[in-house]
Amino acid sequence: MTKFALYVELKAKPGKEEDVAAFLAGAQGLVEAEPDTVAWFAVRFDKDTFAIFDAFDSEAGREAHLGGRVAAALMAGAEELLAVAPQIRQPTVLADKLPG
Fold first, then answer.
1. Per-residue pLDDT at 100 exceeds 90
2. What pLDDT does 77 receive?
3. Strand intervals (E) in the chain
4. How far apart are CA 15 and CA 20, in angstroms?
5. What is the C-alpha separation between 79 and 96, in angstroms, rounded?
6. Please, are residues 54 and 40 in contact by the beta-carbon 8 Å criterion?
7. Among 21, 52, 60, 98, which one is most buried in terms of CB atoms within 10 A?
């Protein structure tokens, strides 16, 4: 069972909403190369509010993801794309249902 997660809320700058959406859609390929990322979701709540939710079996997997290519690319583009700094939370998974 997954026990570790990340929840990252993103608020796009005015006029950058579709750039954030494209960044998130393009990040899927990078995440697929991460063997310890059990589940990964990029979602859009409204015009300018987005989030990423990831789940991991271990703290090491979560830390590897935080030090990985998606996080680096997000932080590199944050000033240009985001109205506020990403809000990174590290919740504990209480229960899950995953395919497989």
1. no
2. 93
3. 4-11, 37-44, 49-56, 87-89
4. 10
5. 34
6. yes
7. 52
pTM for this one? 0.92
- Is residue 70 helix, strand or coil? helix
Which CATH code, of 3.30.70.100, 3.30.750.24, 3.40.50.300, 2.60.40.10, is assigned to 4-89?
Answer: 3.30.70.100
**CA-to-CA distance for 86 and 70, rounded, in angstroms?**
13
- Give residue 93's Cα distance to chain centre: 16
Measured CA to CA, the distance from residue 81 to residue 100 in angstroms comes to 36
Structure tokens at 92: 């504990």
Cα atoms found within 13 Å of the Cα of residue 64, Cβ hemisphere only: 15
Model confidence pLDDT, tens digit, residues 7-58: 999 999 999 999 999 999 999 999 999 999 999 999 999 999 999 999 999 9
